[in-house]
Every structure is written in C-alpha cells, then in structure tokens.
Amino acid sequence: MILSDLKMNMAESKDIQSSWPSESSDIPGNAELLYDADQVSVAFDKLADDINRALKGQSPLVVCVLLGGIVVAGRLIARLKLSCDIGYVHVSRYRDGTRGGDLDWLTNVYGQVENRVVLVVDDILDEGTTLLEIEKHLKERGASRTLKAVLVKKRKPSAVTSVDFFGLEVPDRYVFGCGMDYRGRFRNLPEVYALAES
Prior knowledge:
By secondary structure, this protein is an alpha/beta fold. It has one domain (29-195): Rossmann fold. The protein is built from four helices and nine strands. Strand 2, helix 3 (69-77) and strand 3 form a beta-alpha-beta unit. Helix 2 packs across helix 3.
C-alpha cells in the first residue's frame, strides 16, 4: 500500500514546484516572472541532453561554482548520464549586492584537474569575468579541456567569455531564482525572476 501510494505521488509530482505562495511571498513587488518552474525544468532537461551528447564516453570533473552554481549543479548532475567526479570552487564578485566587484577567491578549485576534461557549472553568464578567471586557473592547473555550462545567459554581447552550454536566455536586467540571489536571498526559488528596469 505504501509503495503504490509512493509511486502514484512520484508520477503526479513535478520536478520542483514553487514553495512561495503568492499571497505570502516577500519577492520584491517590482519583480517580473521570466520563466516558471515547468519552463526551468524543461531547460534543465535540454541542458543535460546537450552535455550528455557532447561528453558521451568521457568522465569529466564537474566543478560547481559556489554559491550560485550549487542549485544549478544539483539539478543538472542528477540528469547527467556520465561517469563524473564532482568538485567545487568558491568565488564571489557580488557579496550580496547587485553590482559586481573584484573577484574574491574564497576557496580554490577542489578536485583532480590535471589532464582532465573539466565542466564548470554556474548559475549565470553576465559579464563573464568569474567564468573567465576560473577557466584560466583550470588551464594553469593542467586541465586538458575546459567547458562551461550555465542555466541562464544574458542577451548582451558584452561578456568577456562565452559558454558551451546554457538553458535559458534573459534580458540584461538583474535576475534571481534558481541559484541566483537578490541581496543574498531567493536562490531556492524554482522560477527565474527579473527586477524591473530602473
């Protein structure tokens, strides 16, 4: 009885549903929903499919960029059909603000990098400074190949680097949810929001 109920509940459940009822939400009032939880789930499926095809038969080191990449990496890794090791790096430019500053290396890349294919997973490609510096560091440590994957890529040509895989595109506005924060909060939202243009 318990097993059949569990199967039925699993069949009916979505990947992740919002735990933020609109009537009690403290999401900023000037925020606009860009992608709902179902659209984000589909984007994760596509992102994983693209990576699975590109790295078929390989065993990459997947490096999660903390903090924003932790939500993205968790949801993405569960969809990968690859034998992979998992590492991390902790860098910050925003420090709970809304404008990036100098890159602060809080924790160096953890994981065996030398002679490895390394897939760096982060939440967003905005200016690209963080991903560019991480990629340079990985090459210095002897990575044979580095690839970059993000859930969200901004629609603007000014990034200093590109990504190999992305799930969603957003306008050049401040976005949050799915790993991305607004003043340190809302990383756990399953949707993607943008603040109104100022």
